[in-house]
Amino acid sequence: MSLQLPNSKQRQQGFTLIEIMVVVIVIAVISVAVVGRIGGNNDRGARLEANRFMAVVNEVRDEAVISGDNYALLVDAKAKTYSFESLRGANQGSVADSLFKLRTMRDDVKLEWDVLESLADEPELAPKVYVSSLGEITPFELRIRGDNHDYVVQIDDEGMLKVEEKATVGY
Predict the structure, then answer these.
(1) Second label for 137, Cα 20 to 30 Å away, from 9, 30, 110, 117?
(2) What parts of the sequence cross the membrane (predicted)?
């Protein structure tokens, strides 16, 4: 029994399985790269800022419970900054720890800030969000706007922070 190699006339036409797989992989890699660059850059930045803000507030809440101190959250929506202030009597003022430093959000997002509970007895005072040593936080809503989506950081019914994604009207 002898093996015969196919001569040039009998050679099969078409692509091998490996050639097809290589082409499919190249197309998949290019598709991932292109889809990652199309739109949503500002939305990704807004989502990142919302998650970062929520993480910092949760860390400050934990610090308040551990240290027994109370803090006030200070937000400047126009400057896109936020920080925390200690409410201890003698040491009242900004906290020196890097967790409590002044933080600035990205330039490509917009902020809207609303404190849902304020002191009705003193309307001349600007409403503040307080983080108590018991882990309680004054209800608030921070809306971080991207191009197509808003990310709303707020306190849920159980007192936990959450981020909700909402499509911008018109999209």
Answers:
(1) 110
(2) 20-39
